[in-house]
């Protein structure tokens, strides 16, 4: 009887104290642990914005990567692509929530570095995608998953030079200050176009975060556009805004126009001859590989420091090709 009572006492103590022994001393769950041993790790993905067609395609790819990696994925971005403070707050909230990893497309290559370092100090894995971040790969973040943006910009420069007559001139409408991805495209474009003999009439004007802002800025360049033979824009919203302005000015289809990224209005303009070429990324591949890479790092696996997700030049002549057509949808 005495032995039976002792056994019951031991079982009761185990039932009471086991949960306490398994809990963290501060009542929180470590960044790399799940609240339940059976729960998948939770990762967060923070794009530059959520309204452009490009980001919706990135999210589609990210969901594929999440399913393949057996993780839970939360997708959340700032409402406006020029709201650095809002993006910083989104990342800080995920740090507070102690997610296992964060995939970030930084709005600004400098402004987002402190909060990324904050995440790393909390033991949260970080992968940067789409747009570069100042800092050290392997220390501040595990990997950079993106288009080779300088090479993609060079594709545009070579194509616009081919379209223009010898010693033709062009206008560059940049995206916005602080965006590393578009800056690289613009510099790649300028280097290739100038090397091919194109004269750059304007290269210091910025479109802003939306197609509406880009249209307004393009209309302010009306005289320069009329005098130039061609124009290049370095992202979806800038290309869309320029297209709207050229239509309003009666210049659509009359000057050579190379844009960047694909959306239904831009693909339609390519078909109609209002746009001559689009440099097109693979946003679904980018989203999927960013999530797969982050999930691998959370599992403790080694990952490559950089992954190039590729870009191609789409024209009316090749837009139906099997390698091009899926990227235009």
How would you describe this structure to a colleague?
The N and C termini lie far apart (77 Å). A six-stranded parallel sheet has the order 2-1-3-4-5-11, sandwiched between helices. It is elongated and about 60 Å long. The protein is built from eleven helices and twelve strands. Helix 3 runs parallel beside helix 4. The protein is an alpha/beta fold and 329 residues long. The longest helix has 21 residues. The N terminus is likely disordered. It is 44% helix and 18% strand. It has two domains: 134 residues, Rossmann fold, CATH 3.40.50; 133 residues, Response regulator (Rossmann fold, 3-Layer(aba) Sandwich). Strand 6, helix 6 and strand 7 form a beta-alpha-beta unit.
Topology summary:
Layout: H1 2-22, E1 42-46, H2 53-69, E2 72-75, H3 84-96, E3 101-104, H4 113-121, E4 125-129, E5 143-146, H5 149-163, E6 169-174, H6 180-195, E7 199-206, H7 211-220, H8 222-227, E8 230-233, H9 236-249, E9 256-260, H10 264-272, E10 277-281, H11 283-298, E11 306-308, E12 311-315
Parallel strand pairs: 1-2, 1-3, 3-4, 4-5, 5-11, 6-7, 6-8, 8-9, 9-10
Antiparallel strand pairs: 10-12
Helix pairs in contact: 2-11, 3-4, 5-6, 7-9
Which stretches are poorly predicted, pLDDT < 50 over at least 5 residues?
1-36
> What number of structural domains do the residues give?
2
Compute the CA-based radius of gyration.
25 Å
Q: CA-to-CA gap between the ends?
A: 77 Å
CATH architecture classification of the largest domain: 3-Layer(aba) Sandwich
CATH topology value of the largest domain: Rossmann fold
Shape: elongated
